[in-house]
């Protein structure tokens, strides 16, 4: 292309002043501060994002006795709750969560759920539609004050109000008891957060049990009682306390649970206790219950029962698992000097994946999360394999990922299993320790946890195939129609595209902050500060936003506003590039340059054809028609031209002379924000000699005009191309407008047979190939003669 030149005097003005167009506003202010959206700071929660000097939270301590009926798949139990009012308020009633009532026949969840009948439906889909036939809600037998006096109560679906006989004043505690029972759901038919799996081959059950007891709701400074109904997505807001739980199960069951086992002599054999002691100092998982022992237990049915008693301090919940099928392994680690027993419980159907990976993944997760947040201080961390695909509780989680019956598995199954264990064990930090309100804001636990999951996956194995975290992986979601999206800052029950919105998008946003906007050093310090400030407390979104800014010194209001409060997308585009060089005023240089450009200029089609068709012009036939201008060369340098140039140079300062003859290249790049989401601009310039340079421009370039800006780049060498976001850092949804000159984006289409056949996984394919190679042919084998 022809490159325009800059007059020497005009160059100074260009560098000294911003272009006039940059001071116009585009009609929206994406850099407005969040002050008007966030709650007013107070003595409970400060403007810095830290807990205030009068911060308080309630406490609930539990003593629970529960019995598992392996014949009828049901649970019965009773509990004593000691509730301590540490608020400045007087309470006349308490709210208790009855989350199991989501399985009640009259559940508000079932009544309000929408669905469609498809021409072809699986039996499982039909089972789910008919789940209202299953009676799985709590049966509350009694609620009593300590001493035996009955307490009045009202059940409102998944919430129960307990009315106190006398007001509970600040710094006072009340102890009351609840007795209950319920039927356990078949998790393979009615998918919930806990349930059982039946194994027809050996006629055994495996139970993963949670939300099994009435639990205190949170009462907080920022919203009072959190008693929003449990509809399924919005998980649980719970106060901290100490637990003592006694679980009575068939005598041949193995029971794993939150906390530490209080009566090992009553429930474990001498050999199992010795193995458990050995595991504390082992660098590899030690089998506490071996596969052989588990298989032997599967074949018998004990008539009696055993009671396993577990205790846990300063936790917000309790869960457990029970089965005679369990293989159990364990390995001890030290986290900041604190011993942590990393353990796994799984049936033989989980091997070889579970025996090889689960406990190692648990240990790796505890170590990595502790590095990025706070040291793990609980005594155990457990991964259980059963029917629940992925669910988390303090010190214990339920995870899927089962190999084929022949023991083979695909890469997706392997990495999916590792990822779900990382994710669910990681939930010990968010929200089990940094205890956000999941009923209101799913992203505060799922999104933050998915982000640290991504970091942990990358430290497990180089180039680990993480599904979430990389900006490129969220592009497809952000390309969807805005009517199919909701802002991240949406209540858990109203979120659309739940996985992308609550898990993927916030995790990606944090990765963009870490890698592109703040840098790892500033981000990691601020993120760790947030975890430290709010460990074992109840943070809100404002506390997170404010802490990240307070600890880093980076104004991120524009980012929270765009990424969390809107459904705008990233689409930055190069609209055009103008290339300038400085007119040196040296007639010899400039005239030669102009002559070169004229000679290189393409001839029009008419000029090309005229050379062939017009053999002679009139002036060729009649030379007398020629005059001065037929021989005049306007690009010939005269002495007068040289003298004028010398006179010009004498009047310039040395710095001006250097600018005049510096040979610099000036590129005016026009940029547009087509997607509406403000982002930094990352520009890759490729020079004529093939070398490249990356320029990172902060998002504040958009502060005066949110829609379009121009940026001048000054280089010593000619630039042959500009590319935005070359390393896919900003989740740009349209890469076709990111390059100048424009590049075609490659894509593919796939041909397939009309009837798709299930393909064996690579391990099965390899096994079949080996068997084929070893098959005797004409009395011989692939290894030689018989």
Automatic annotation (TrEMBL):
Coiled coil: none annotated. It comes from the Bacteria. GO terms for molecular function: aminopeptidase activity. Gene3D superfamilies: Neutral Protease Domain 2. Residues 754-786 are annotated as: Disordered. The lineage of its organism: Bacteria, Pseudomonadati, Bacteroidota, Cytophagia, Cytophagales. Residues 357-563 form the Peptidase M1 membrane alanine aminopeptidase domain. Pfam families: Peptidase_M1. Residues 1-21 form the signal peptide. The keyword Secreted does not apply. The keyword Signal applies. Residues 754-771 have a biased composition (Low complexity). The gene is pepN. Keywords: Aminopeptidase, Hydrolase, Protease, Signal. InterPro entries: Peptidase_M1_aminopeptidases (IPR050344), Peptidase_M1_dom (IPR014782), Peptidase_M4/M1_CTD_sf (IPR027268). This is Aminopeptidase.
């Amino acid at each position: 292309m022809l490159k325009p030149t800059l007059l020497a005097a005009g160059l100074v003005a260009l560098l000294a002043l911003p272009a006039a167009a940059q001071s116009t506003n585009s009609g929206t202010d994406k850099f407005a501060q969040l002050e008007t959206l966030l709650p007013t700071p107070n003595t409970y929660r400060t403007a810095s994002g830290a807990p205030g000097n009068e911060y308080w939270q309630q406490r609930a301590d539990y003593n629970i006795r529960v019995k598992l009926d392996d014949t009828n798949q049901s649970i019965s139990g009773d509990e004593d709750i000691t509730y301590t009012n540490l608020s400045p308020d007087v309470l006349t009633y308490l709210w208790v969560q009855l989350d199991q009532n989501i399985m009640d026949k009259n559940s508000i969840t079932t009544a309000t759920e929408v669905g469609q009948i498809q021409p072809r439906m699986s039996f499982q889909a039909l089972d789910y539609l008919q789940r209202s036939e299953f009676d799985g809600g709590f049966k509350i037998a009694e609620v009593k004050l300590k001493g035996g006096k009955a307490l009045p109560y009202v059940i409102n679906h998944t919430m129960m109000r307990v009315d106190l006989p006398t007001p509970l004043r600040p710094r006072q505690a009340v102890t009351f008891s609840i007795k209950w029972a319920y039927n356990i759901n078949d998790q393979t038919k009615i998918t919930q957060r806990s349930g059982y799996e039946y194994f027809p081959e050996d006629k055994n059950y495996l139970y993963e049990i949670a939300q099994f007891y009435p639990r205190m709701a949170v009462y907080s400074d920022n919203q009072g009682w959190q008693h929003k109904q449990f509809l399924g997505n919005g998980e649980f807001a719970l106060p901290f306390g100490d637990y003592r739980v006694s679980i009575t199960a068939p005598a041949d069951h193995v029971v794993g649970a939150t906390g530490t086992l209080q009566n090992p002599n009553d429930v474990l054999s001498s050999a199992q206790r010795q193995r458990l002691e050995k595991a504390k100092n082992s660098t590899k998982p030690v089998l506490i219950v071996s596969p052989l022992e588990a298989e032997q237990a599967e074949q018998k049915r004990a008539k009696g029962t055993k009671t396993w008693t577990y205790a846990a301090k300063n936790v917000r919940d309790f869960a457990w698992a029970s089965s005679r099928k369990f293989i159990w392994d364990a390995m001890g680690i030290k986290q900041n000097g604190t011993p942590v027993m990393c353990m796994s419980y799984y049936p033989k159907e989980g091997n070889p994946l579970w025996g090889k990976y689960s406990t190692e993944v648990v240990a790796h997760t505890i170590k990595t999360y502790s590095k990025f947040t706070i040291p793990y201080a609980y005594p155990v961390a457990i991964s259980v394999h059963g029917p629940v695909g992925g669910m988390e509780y303090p010190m214990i989680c339920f995870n899927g990922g089962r190999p084929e019956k022949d023991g083979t598995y695909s890469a997706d199954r392997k990495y999916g299993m590792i990822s779900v264990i990382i994710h669910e064990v990681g939930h010990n930090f968010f929200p089990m320790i940094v205890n956000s309100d999941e009923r209101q804001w799913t992203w505060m636990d799922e999104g933050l946890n998915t982000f640290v999951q991504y970091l942990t996956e990358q430290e497990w194995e180089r180039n680990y195939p993480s599904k979430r975290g990389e900006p490129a992986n969220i592009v497809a979601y952000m390309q969807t129609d805005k009517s199919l999206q909701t802002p991240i800052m949406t209540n858990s029950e109203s979120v659309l595209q739940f996985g992308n919105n609550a898990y993927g998008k916030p995790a990606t946003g944090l990765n963009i902050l870490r890698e592109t906007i703040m840098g790892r050093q500033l981000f990691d310090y601020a993120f760790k500060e947030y975890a430290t400030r709010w460990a074992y407390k109840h943070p809100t979104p404002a506390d997170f936003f404010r802490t990240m800014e307070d600890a880093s010194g980076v104004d991120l209001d524009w980012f929270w506003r765009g990424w969390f409060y809107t459904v705008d997308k990233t689409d930055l585009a190069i609209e055009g590039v103008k290339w300038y060089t400085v007119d040196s005023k040296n007639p010899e240089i400039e005239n030669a340059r102009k002559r070169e450009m004229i000679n290189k200029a393409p001839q029009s089609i008419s000029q090309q054809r005229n050379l062939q068709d017009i053999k002679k012009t009139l002036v060729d036939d009649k030379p007398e028609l020629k005059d001065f201008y037929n021989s005049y060369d306007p690009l010939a340098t005269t002495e007068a031209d040289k003298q004028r140039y010398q006179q010009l140079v004498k009047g310039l300062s040395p710095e001006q002379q250097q600018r005049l003859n510096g040979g610099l290249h000036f590129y005016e790049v026009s940029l547009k924000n087509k997607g509406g989401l403000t982002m930094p601009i990352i520009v890759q310039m490729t020079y004529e000699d093939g070398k490249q340079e990356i320029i990172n421009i902060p998002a504040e370039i958009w502060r005066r005009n949110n829609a379009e800006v121009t940026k001048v780049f000054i280089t010593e060498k000619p630039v042959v191309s500009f590319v935005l976001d070359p390393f896919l850092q900003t989740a740009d949804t349209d890469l076709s407008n990111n390059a100048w000159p424009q590049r075609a984006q490659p894509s593919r289409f796939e041909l397939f047979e009309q009837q798709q056949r299930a393909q064996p996984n690579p391990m099965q394919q390899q096994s079949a190939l080996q068997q084929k190679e070893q098959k005797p042919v004409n009395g011989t084998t692939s290894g030689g003669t018989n």
